[in-house]
């Protein structure tokens, strides 16, 4: 068996292959629902209803999509330059720490000053968290996959240390939880009384900016060149190390922004379960979007919808909500395979 | 207790070898995959699958060794999936690896929830008991550590020796290593890079799963969420630390485990003064430090992460 490149894939192939991936994902989900002793069609209906069937559902999906857009952008930016950032989780938490440190710091600054200040600090914290592994990669040739992964554990322990020490809320009765940030530091809600907040707009603007940087600037071109072929890029006079370090700052910064947005927009304080793996899910979001920043918005909303819908379904149908993660992982694997088959066909010998 | 006294207690050495056991299995598994040219980031998920299937088999009434066998097969099935996606299809090994970890972990949790709805504390199983070797286990300090462990620990050391033997002393091993260094040369010999790599990933993933099964069948006696807790990622670091050589990787696993056992005891001595999180961070920080030190000298297999397509350069 071998793969043969297709010179120009027809439109049928371009449409059929992603549909086949979707079909396979639905099939896997159906088998799992059957295994739980429920009927697939009604359960799928409940998932869709839970994700988009009411104003509440839609707002909840968009709220859940907000951090995923930002971590998805973070991963997409890094992967473009073949900087394998698996540490968005750590960068997110450091951004959140910044939000809490400055947001509960009684700075006395008014909201128009304090909000951008905290945002910048969070971006910087997240960016620096990835700059470390990036420097180790460019200076010493240390694989960033392992270092960024291990940093996730170190940072989470560091946050735990802060929450039981300097950032501990004395009123929390021993729970590892920070104090609430002050009102001037909070991102306002988009609709009064609902959970959707200005972080969502921030995420959309970020997606637009990242798209602009990637598609319309020299830096974006250099990132793609480095990702495509680092040696050729170096030969063409691109300073590969510098590009990688700048990419790291941008990528980590976006994940830091996700942590800031969750604290300042939604939760108000920092706990150890601020992120149920948004950093890792960002990898799926970015891959489903083919690393396209605008596609990240769509795929983040899709993935968020699966999670929100599965949660709602789980409560009423008794099928474990872990099915959402299985669906998302299956979608990732089948989609990357399907995309390969839009460019190659199998030749059996 | 003085800090240095820790090294004079048998329980420290026993714990170090016990903590090392699952790491040895999984590190050897990852090493075999990478030697054949495939990075396996599915390791964390594959260990979760092994931990669960081994435990489930025993909980459902199967024997302990049957549980190990089932874990091995479940791991190999996951390896087959990773192998097919990365070898003939040549997909990004980073992306499929993370995908396998997500899939394997969530699938395990899903099946656990179906099998045991509404269970708050996971049920325990009758796990492997220590098999003390008569005579040798009487030696002070190292006796209990090396000769009074459960059979899976002995198997872990045997597995490291076998990995080294097969990879360097058999023609199959030479072919596997060549698939990771110079696949075109392997193909020129009339061997299939595709099958060598898929086979290596399956075998390696099987070992990772047995490493996971050690946790439920020889250490904690039950399955709970997040129980692998980064051990798989540490094993990837251990492979680099060991310079892709089984002997050094084994040593690395033992050092790491000794450090882990040491920090637990250090907490009891220096508790109060230093927050416990600092001790828990140390093994991970040490892994990163070890990578920095070793990465300069270590020679990764040259075709690692490079998909091979016959006739393409």
Automatic annotation (TrEMBL), chain A:
**Its topology with respect to the membrane?**
Multi-pass membrane protein
A GO molecular function held by the record: transmembrane transporter activity
Output the superkingdom of the source species: Bacteria
* Keywords associated with the record: Cell membrane, Membrane, Transmembrane, Transmembrane helix
Species per Swiss-Prot/TrEMBL record:
Paroceanicella profunda
Q: What is this protein called?
A: ABC transporter permease
What is one GO cellular-component annotation here?
plasma membrane
Task: Indicate the transmembrane segments per the record.
Answer: 62-80, 92-111, 117-136, 145-163, 196-214, 280-310, 322-341
- Principal localization reads membrane
Keyword rRNA processing on entry: no
> What InterPro entries is this protein classified in?
ABC_transp_permease (IPR001851)
Q: Where is the protein situated, by its record's location annotation?
A: Cell membrane
Report if keyword Transit peptide is assigned.
no
UniProtKB/TrEMBL annotation, chain B:
InterPro entries attached to this UniProt entry:
ABC_transp_permease (IPR001851)
- Using the UniProt record, give the first listed, main subcellular location: membrane
Which keywords does this chain's UniProt record carry?
Cell membrane, Membrane, Transmembrane, Transmembrane helix
Q: In Gene Ontology terms, what is one molecular function of this protein?
A: transmembrane transporter activity
Q: Where is this chain's protein located in or outside the cell?
A: Cell membrane
Domain of life where this protein originates: Bacteria
Query: What name does this protein carry?
Result: ABC transporter permease
Which Pfam families did the record assign?
A: BPD_transp_2 (PF02653)
Q: Which GO terms describe its cellular component?
A: plasma membrane
Q: How does it sit in the membrane?
A: Multi-pass membrane protein
Claim: NAD is one of the keywords in the record = no
Per the UniProt record, which residue ranges are transmembrane? 6-26, 38-58, 64-87, 94-112, 154-175, 195-217, 278-295
Q: Is Iron among this UniProt entry's keywords?
A: no
């Amino acid at each position: 068996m071998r793969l043969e490149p297709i010179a120009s894939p027809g439109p049928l192939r371009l449409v059929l292959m992603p549909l086949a991936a979707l079909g396979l994902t639905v099939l896997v989900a159906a088998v799992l629902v059957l295994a739980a002793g429920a009927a697939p069609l009604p359960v799928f209906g409940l998932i869709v209803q839970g994700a988009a069937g009411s104003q509440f559902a839609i707002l909840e999906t968009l709220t859940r999509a907000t951090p995923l857009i930002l971590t998805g952008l973070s991963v997409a930016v890094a992967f473009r330059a073949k900087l394998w950032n698996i540490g968005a989780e750590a960068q997110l938490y450091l951004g959140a720490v910044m939000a809490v440190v400055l947001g509960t710091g009684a700075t006395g600054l008014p909201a128009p000053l304090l909000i951008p200040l905290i945002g910048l600090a969070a971006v910087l914290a997240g960016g620096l968290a990835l700059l470390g592994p990036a420097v180790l990669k460019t200076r010493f040739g240390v694989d960033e996959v392992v270092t960024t992964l291990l940093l996730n554990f170190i940072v989470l322990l560091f946050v735990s240390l802060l929450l039981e020490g300097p950032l501990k809320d004395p009123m929390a009765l021993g729970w590892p939880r920070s104090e609430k940030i002050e009102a001037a530091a909070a991102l306002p809600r988009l609709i009064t009384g609902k959970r959707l907040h200005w972080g969502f707009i921030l995420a959309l603007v970020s997606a637009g900016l990242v798209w602009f940087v990637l598609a319309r600037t020299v830096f974006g071109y250099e990132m793609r060149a480095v990702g495509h072929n680092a040696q050729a890029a170096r030969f063409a006079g691109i300073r590969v190390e510098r590009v990688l370090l700048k990419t790291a700052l941008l990528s980590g910064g976006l994940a830091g922004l996700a942590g800031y947005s969750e604290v300042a927009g939604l939760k108000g304080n920092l706990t150890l379960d601020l992120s149920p793996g948004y950093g890792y899910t960002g990898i799926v979001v970015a891959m489903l979007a083919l690393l396209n920043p605008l596609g990240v918005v769509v795929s983040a909303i899709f993935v968020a919808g699966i999670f929100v819908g599965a949660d709602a379904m789980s409560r009423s149908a008794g099928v474990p909500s872990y099915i959402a993660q299985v669906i998302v992982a299956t979608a990732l694997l089948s989609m990357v395979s399907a995309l390969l088959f839009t460019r190659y066909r199998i030749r059996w010998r | 207790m003085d800090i240095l006294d820790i090294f004079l207690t048998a329980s420290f050495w026993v714990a170090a070898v016990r903590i090392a056991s699952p790491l040895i299995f999984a590190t050897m598994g990852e090493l075999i995959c990478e030697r054949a040219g495939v990075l396996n980031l599915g390791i964390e998920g594959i260990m979760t699958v092994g931990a669960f299937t081994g435990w489930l088999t025993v909980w459902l009434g199967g024997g302990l060794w049957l549980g190990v066998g089932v874990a091995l097969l479940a791991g190999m099935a996951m390896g087959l999936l990773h192998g097919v996606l990365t070898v003939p299809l040549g997909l990004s090994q980073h992306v499929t690896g993370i995908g396998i970890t997500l899939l394997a972990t969530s699938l395990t949790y899903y099946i656990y929830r179906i099998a045991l709805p509404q269970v708050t504390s996971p049920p325990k199983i009758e796990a492997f008991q220590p098999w003390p070797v008569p005579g040798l286990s009487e030696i002070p300090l190292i006796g209990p550590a090396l000769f009074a462990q459960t059979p899976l620990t002995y198997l872990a050391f045997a597995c490291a020796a076998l990995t080294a033997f097969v990879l360097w002393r058999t023609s199959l091993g030479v072919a596997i290593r060549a698939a990771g260094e110079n696949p075109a040369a392997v193909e020129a010999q009339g061997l299939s890079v595709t099958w060598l790599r898929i086979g290596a990933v399956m075998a390696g993933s099987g070992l990772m799963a047995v490493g996971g099964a050690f946790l439920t069948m020889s250490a904690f006696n039950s399955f709970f969420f997040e129980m692998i807790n980064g051990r798989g990622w540490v094993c990837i670091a251990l492979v680099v630390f060991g310079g892709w050589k089984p002997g050094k990787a084994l040593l690395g696993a033992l050092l790491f485990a000794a450090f882990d056992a040491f920090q637990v005891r250090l907490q009891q001595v220096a508790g109060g003064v230093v927050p416990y999180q600092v001790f828990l961070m140390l093994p991970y920080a040490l892994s990163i430090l070890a990578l920095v030190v070793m990465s300069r000298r270590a020679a990764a297999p040259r075709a690692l992460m490079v998909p091979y397509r016959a006739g393409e350069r």
